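Following up on my earlier thread - several people asked me to post the actual chain instead of describing it. Fair enough. Here it is, all 187 residues.
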Amino acid sequence: MRLYGIRIEASFWFWGMLCLYLLLDREGMAPVLFAAMLLHEMGHLFVLWLFGERPEAILLQCGGIAIHHRSRLTPAKEAAALLAGSGMNFLCAAVSLWAGWMFSFGCHLLLGIFNLLPMESLDGGKLWRLFLRKFPVRTVDVWLMCLQIGTSAAVSLWLFWLKQSGYPLEWRAFFLPLYLIFLIFCS
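Reply from S.P.:
Thanks for posting it. Predicted structure:
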């Protein structure tokens, strides 16, 4: 499908994960999370538009939403475009906190932080690759793989520590390390 000349594609796995999440969503969290994801991507699109870039495609994938553009931007502008998604989430988190919408605040805050993790398919991993671009590709790949594995281990240990400390975690919290490991293998 095309929208304003931009190719929009949704994979089978995106629809499958969305349906599964909607089926398991008993608290009504899915619409707020999906809105937070869309606003995150709108942050990227807005900054790309400010720099005169036009995305070629928006891909809805199992791991999230990806925007593809020709990348004629300078490294500083590319970094600004990558940071704009989380920046939008942090702005929305502040507005949500001011309005007293605590669930929306939490969703935006966590999504903004999550996307800055150094995982190859997230904005944080792309920022690391951008900052390490002067090094040989093989060296950067090794550094990023170490960062990804370290991040997954740190999140797993943090969740385990929270559970052992008596913090009431829901069973869904333990899907986060599995999702991070999934992201490593997707990239």
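The chain has a mean pLDDT of 80. That should answer part of your original question.
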